[in-house]
């Protein structure tokens, strides 16, 4: 009788026999989910989440339900990465939520995006590192731009909601007894904009 132990498979799918949860989402209001659902079923998905709101809409109720339902060892399947996320940061946030619950992820059309395998996990770790590097570059450029503007005597930030003349006029009206709300309505701004005139001088938008 051989005492050799079976070799571990290359994929955690084979070892854990997880529940496969398929997530389908339309990209336009006129699109149907049929083709995606067929692919997900063919890949073994037994629980299906159908998102009928297009990607332009922020509320993804079915994705929220999936993230609530998912259990340790489960695998979330999508036909393509853009069915799950609208940006790299969005994708990494969702994958982070799945990892926190001990679940995994696989995109049928993107073999590298497969956290059931060591190679897939490595690729997504690299992606997260690149996203962080990009954010650091943006922060650095923003900081350099502010430093240059300060050195040149330019002001950063959004344009002021009120012109200097309007700011002075608003102060005089308030000192004359007019309410902040009335002044704000006359300039079509929030009353807090007028209040800030007395807290910090000029009012940014």
UniProtKB/TrEMBL annotation:
Query: In its UniProt record, which GO terms are filed under biological process?
Result: DNA integration
Question: Which residues are named in the active-site annotation?
Answer: 27 (o-(5'-phospho-dna)-serine intermediate)
Record GO terms (molecular function):
DNA binding; DNA strand exchange activity
Compositionally skewed regions (Basic and acidic residues) per UniProt: 144-155, 168-177
Q: Where does the Resolvase/invertase-type recombinase catalytic domain start and stop, copy by copy?
A: 19-153
- UniProt keyword Transferase, yes or no: no
Report the InterPro entries cross-referenced here: Homeodomain-like_sf (IPR009057), IS30-like_HTH (IPR025246), Recombinase_CS (IPR006118), Resolv_N (IPR006119), Resolvase-like_N_sf (IPR036162), SSR_resolvase (IPR050639)
Annotated region described as Disordered, given as residue ranges: 144-177
UniProt keyword DNA-binding present: yes
Keywords, A to Z?
DNA integration, DNA invertase, DNA recombination, DNA-binding
- Stored SUPFAM superfamilies: Homeodomain-like, Resolvase-like
Family to which this protein belongs = Belongs to the site-specific recombinase resolvase family.
Q: What is this protein called?
A: Recombinase family protein
Species lineage, top-down?
Bacteria, Pseudomonadati, Pseudomonadota, Alphaproteobacteria, Rhodobacterales
């Amino acid at each position: 009788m051989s005492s050799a132990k079976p070799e571990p498979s290359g994929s955690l799918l084979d070892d854990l026999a997880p529940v496969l949860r398929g997530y389908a989402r339309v990209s336009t209001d006129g699109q149907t989910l049929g083709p995606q659902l067929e692919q997900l079923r063919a890949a073994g998905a037994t629980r299906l989440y159908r998102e009928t709101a297009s990607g332009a809409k922020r509320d993804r109720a079915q994705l929220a339900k999936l993230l609530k339902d998912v259990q340790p060892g489960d695998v979330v399947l999508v036909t393509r990465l853009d069915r799950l996320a609208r940006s790299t940061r969005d994708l990494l946030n969702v994958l982070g939520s799945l990892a926190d619950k001990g679940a995994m992820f696989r995109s049928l059309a993107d073999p590298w995006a497969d956290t059931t395998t060591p190679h897939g996990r490595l690729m997504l770790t690299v992606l997260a590192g690149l996203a962080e590097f990009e954010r650091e570059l943006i922060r650095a450029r923003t900081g350099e731009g502010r430093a240059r503007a300060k050195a040149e005597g330019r002001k950063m930030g959004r344009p002021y909601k009120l012109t200097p003349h309007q700011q002075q006029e608003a102060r005089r009206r308030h000192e004359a007894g007019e309410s902040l709300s009335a002044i704000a309505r006359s300039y079509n701004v929030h009353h807090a904009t007028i209040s800030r005139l007395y807290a910090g001088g000029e009012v940014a938008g």
